[in-house]
């Protein structure tokens, strides 16, 4: 097992809003090792983006971090350093970590590039700031980066403004910007959600290729389980600001334990079984303005036990890598298995994911 | 880009001709004549009218005026300074007006931008409330109220600045009129800058720049301000116009020998050529500013530059 790069412990974040305190993150743990990809999945509002924004320290001004630590392990001048990112000042964070060691690709490439600055200047900026490169050196490196992310005619593109490029090209440019200083960690916050499916597949391929070349660690946020199957080594499932299950991608796809994960997997459209009615999880997520007692998912859970409404389940260990927060894993709990249809479906999806990913298959699964 | 500027210049010339014609027609409709002295008899008036060509039909006068104007002749003043060429009058008065106008635009945009940026950065703080307060005051009070208040407190009570303009102290004596004139600009620019900056600062590309590790000074000036400026430039043109109108009153209050006070006097005593020349000058300045703003747009926003200029492959 390779060394840990980033570990989040018991992170808790709330936002001051007009209607009160919203407890967006209620205790998140995450472990990212060198060269590995961790996917964070969950529905909108489950706290995926807030978690990674906390890592980057770009939370909006009404957000406050109540507890927890984000330990970042990196090498500086040959020595291994461990730094709690939450203890750095904003200025230190920007000058030492952001863009230099941890970089982030945003969701919508149509709005994440500065419209009044050329592509070239936007790529060169962080190299000039962090690596103190001259403009000529930075220019050279920017051309390489554009080439790496698969943009043809980079010399010409350097002088372009964002509005002259398509969405897919812009996302490639954003990736080039983020790779400029050879960071150790790349955070991808739904990088393909705003793109159409053919471009999605290409961007995913690109991130995988880059990871293979550079050995960068990736945190991948998505609500698309097809994407997870394709890119991730480990999966963390979030619900209502908490992690409810984590494990390797095989464990989550073949042997999910939390009823919410069952629900998520069941509600995934599947090309293999055309006559079935698509499953949906009943109800909607809880309002995080109010305190939550017991398991946040209990009201929507058909398998909910009495204790689920009273006491919050701890993380039960399934294997060394697989944990789930559900009372169903307690030794006294009734034995409940996921439904047969879901099992069949999982087998199908897993087979798809295992097969060699050509353009065609990825297209199918991504729909 | 060059084609665009040429086209706009051509349009500007046509617009100015139409404005000039309208001025002639409006003067024709005005009651009275430049020679209002009761001692002047009908016969004497007819002689004067013939001398200055006022007996001619309005269209003939218009054509004659344009011909003369093209050779730099704006006619002579009838009343204010009898038979003085208007070009000479303007030459003496224009620099003062331009100086004060320029100072007011500069001060107004600089302070307005500063207040707006601070308010946006310290959103919902005391500085923000103060900026909103200044904006409301600056927009709702006419400039002469500030002029009178400033002359009373800073000029009369504290004696920091002279009450009236004096050519011996061309800067110190223009401080009060400059402040009074710039209040509206400060207020409007601050208000727009604040809301634009708040919007730009919450945008994704600012988050991305932070993720790149851009320091806060560079973030605000290079990334945020330039994008926030685009809509602010739009309001600059009407602001400069408001400033010109304000100068008519301000020049009266501080006894500034500029073109604003000249126009007011000329209108009161029907000095036709002065009215036309000064109004025409105002129109030229207005159109020039509109043109400058449109070109400035293209400089700041690459999307506009390319849409109007060369096609990009």
Automatic annotation (TrEMBL), chain A:
GO terms for cellular component: plasma membrane. The keyword NADP does not apply. Keywords: ATP-binding, Cell membrane, Membrane, Nucleotide-binding, Transport. GO terms for biological process: peptide transport. InterPro entries: AAA+_ATPase, ABC_Ni/Peptide_Import, ABC_transporter-like_ATP-bd, ABC_transporter-like_CS, Oligopep_ABC_C, P-loop_NTPase. Transmembrane segments: none annotated. PROSITE patterns: ABC_TRANSPORTER_1 (PS00211), ABC_TRANSPORTER_2 (PS50893). It comes from the Bacteria. It is found in: Cell membrane. GO terms for molecular function: ATP binding; ATP hydrolysis activity. Residues 8-265 form the ABC transporter domain. Signal peptide: none annotated. SUPFAM superfamilies: P-loop containing nucleoside triphosphate hydrolases. It is a peripheral membrane protein. Belongs to the ABC transporter superfamily. This is Oligopeptide transport system ATP-binding protein. It comes from Paenibacillus algorifonticola.
TrEMBL record, chain B:
Gene3D superfamilies: MetI-like. It is found in: Cell membrane. The keyword Nucleotidyltransferase does not apply. The chain crosses the membrane at residues 9-27, 100-121, 133-156, 168-190, 228-254, 274-300. InterPro entries: MetI-like, MetI-like_sf. Keywords: Cell membrane, Membrane, Transmembrane, Transmembrane helix, Transport. It is a multi-pass membrane protein. The keyword Transport applies. It comes from the Bacteria. One of its GO terms (cellular component) is plasma membrane. Its main location: membrane. Residues 94-293 form the ABC transmembrane type-1 domain. GO terms for biological process: transmembrane transport. Belongs to the binding-protein-dependent transport system permease family. PANTHER family: DIPEPTIDE TRANSPORT SYSTEM PERMEASE PROTEIN DPPB-RELATED. This is Oligopeptide transport system permease protein. It comes from Paenibacillus algorifonticola.
């Amino acid at each position: 097992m390779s060394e840990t790069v980033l570990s989040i412990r018991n992170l808790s974040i709330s936002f001051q809003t007009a209607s009160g305190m919203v407890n967006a993150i209620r205790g998140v743990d995450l472990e990212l090792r060198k060269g590995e990809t961790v996917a964070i999945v969950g529905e909108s509002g489950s706290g995926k983006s807030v978690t990674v924004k906390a890592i980057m320290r770009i939370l909006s001004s009404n957000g406050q971090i109540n507890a927890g630590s984000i330990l970042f392990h990196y090498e500086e001048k040959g020595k291994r350093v461990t730094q709690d990112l939450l203890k750095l000042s904003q200025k230190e964070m920007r000058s030492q970590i952001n863009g230099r060691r941890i970089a982030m690709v945003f969701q919508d490439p149509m709005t994440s590039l500065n419209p009044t600055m050329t592509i070239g200047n936007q790529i060169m900026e962080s190299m000039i700031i962090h690596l103190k490169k001259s403009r000529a050196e930075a220019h050279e490196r920017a051309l390489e980066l554009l080439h790496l992310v698969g943009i043809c005619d980079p010399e010409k593109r350097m002088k372009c403004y964002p509005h002259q490029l398509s969405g897919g090209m812009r996302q490639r440019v954003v990736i080039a910007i983020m790779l400029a200083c050879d960071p150790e960690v790349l955070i991808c916050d739904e990088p393909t959600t705003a793109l159409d499916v053919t471009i999605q597949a290409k961007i995913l391929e690109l991130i995988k290729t880059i990871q293979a070349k550079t050995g960068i660690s990736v945190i991948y946020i998505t609500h698309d389980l097809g994407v997870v199957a394709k890119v991730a080594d480990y999966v963390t499932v979030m619900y209502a600001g908490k992690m409810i299950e984590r494990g390797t991608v095989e464990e989550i796809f073949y042997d999910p334990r939390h009823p919410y994960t069952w629900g998520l997997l069941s509600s995934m459209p599947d090309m293999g079984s055309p006559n079935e009615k698509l499953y949906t999880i009943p109800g909607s997520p809880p309002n995080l303005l109010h305190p939550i007692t017991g398991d946040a998912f209990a009201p929507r859970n058909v398998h909910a036990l009495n204790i689920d409404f009273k006491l919050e389940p701890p993380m039960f260990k399934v294997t060394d890598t697989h944990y789930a927060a559900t009372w169903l894993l307690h030794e006294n709990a009734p034995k409940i298995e996921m439904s047969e249809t879901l099992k069949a479906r999982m087998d199908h999806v897993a087979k798809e994911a295992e097969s060699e990913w050509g353009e065609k298959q990825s297209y199918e699964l991504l729909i | 880009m060059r084609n665009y500027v040429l086209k706009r210049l051509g349009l500007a010339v046509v617009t100015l001709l139409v404005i000039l014609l309208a001025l002639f027609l409006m003067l024709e409709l005005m009651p009275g004549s430049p020679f209002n002295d009761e001692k002047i008899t009908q016969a004497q008036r007819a002689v004067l009218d013939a001398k200055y060509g006022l007996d001619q039909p309005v269209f003939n006068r218009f054509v004659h005026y344009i011909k003369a104007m093209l050779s730099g002749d704006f006619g002579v003043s009838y009343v204010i300074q009898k038979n003085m060429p208007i070009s000479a009058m303007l030459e003496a008065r224009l620099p003062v007006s331009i100086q004060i106008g320029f100072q007011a635009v500069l001060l107004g945009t600089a302070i307005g931008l500063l207040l707006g940026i601070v308010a946006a950065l310290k959103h919902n703080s005391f500085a923000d409330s103060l900026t909103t307060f200044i904006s409301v005051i600056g927009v709702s009070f006419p400039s002469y109220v500030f002029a009178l208040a400033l002359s009373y407190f800073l000029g009369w009570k504290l004696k920091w600045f002279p009450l009236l303009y004096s050519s011996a102290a061309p800067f110190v004596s223009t401080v009060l009129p400059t402040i009074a004139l710039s209040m509206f600009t400060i207020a409007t620019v601050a208000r727009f800058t604040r809301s634009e900056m708040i919007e730009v600062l919450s945008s994704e590309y600012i988050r991305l720049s932070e993720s790149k590790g851009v320091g806060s000074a560079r973030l605000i000036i290079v990334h945020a301000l330039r994008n926030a400026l685009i809509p602010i430039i739009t309001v600059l043109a009407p602001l400069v116009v408001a400033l010109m109108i304000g100068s008519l009153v301000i020049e009266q209050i501080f006894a500034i020998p500029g073109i604003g006070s000249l126009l007011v006097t000329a209108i009161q005593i029907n000095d036709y050529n002065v009215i036309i020349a000064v109004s025409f000058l105002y129109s030229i300045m207005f159109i020039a500013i509109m043109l400058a703003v449109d070109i400035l747009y293209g400089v700041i926003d690459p999307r506009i530059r390319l849409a109007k200029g060369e096609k990009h492959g």
